[in-house]
Amino acid sequence: MKRLTVPKVMQRKEDGTTQEPLVMLTAYTARQAQLLDPHCDMLLVGDSLGQVIYGLPSTLPVTLDMMCAHGAAVVRGSYHALVVVDMPFGSYEASPQQAFTSASRVLAQTGAAAIKIEGGHAMAETVRFLSQRGIPVMGHVGLTPQAVNALGGYMARGRNEAEHARIIADGNAIADAGAFAVVAEGVVEDIAITLTRSLSVPVIGIGASAHCDGQVLVTEDMLGMFERVPRFVKKYSDIAGMIDDTAARYASEVRARTFPGPEQVYRAKSD
Ligand code: KIV
Ligand code: NA
Fold it and tell me: Are 115 and 87 in contact (CB under 8 A)?
């Protein structure tokens, strides 16, 4: 099957509306990508892997090497979805040139077709610089986790008028600069409605209501790998419970010496 391309994703909103919402999930490993790929239009190698895979307290310590390694694994495991790789904190903010150096390395080392950067107005020049040089950029506005120290936490954004207007301006600034899609995270419903109506490119929501051109979630959140998840997550499964139960059965069989059983034992060839 042929992989979905950036122009194809943009075409989904050609007449200004998206008939069938774009489906996106995070993926960090090859096998996970392989399982999710048939169901998704896009796979995001999110820097959320800092917390989800590495147990880090935030996304800030995530490195370009980590994103390249996981990005390459996800590309190897997928065939159909467009793979987007997050640019980690510190790898793109200093200048458009720094962003180009980092982003070109990500595309070259992973085989992914696009990168994602957080930020609005302040990143518009960088989005333009990359887009004009062959690097498709997905934007990310609203709750931008790399700005946790400036924002003071992971609370929903746009609850007062000034912030509301700023997030809409941010989304427009990066779309005007050439972003091929924009993630809107943790924003009030009105912002999602306005952004989705006003931007000519797809708006992918996470904690941003159903009024978007697509949705993204952290796969482990949606699978029920974690006890505590944000309000906007729906747990479609209880994978944590299944792993706990499965490990408990294995442990009890090992302790009872009922595993390995006869079926799992190698024997000498007999005639
Ligand atoms: O890192 C991530 O997983 C993300 C999304 C959830 C949008 O940026
Ligand atoms: Na991210």
Answer: yes
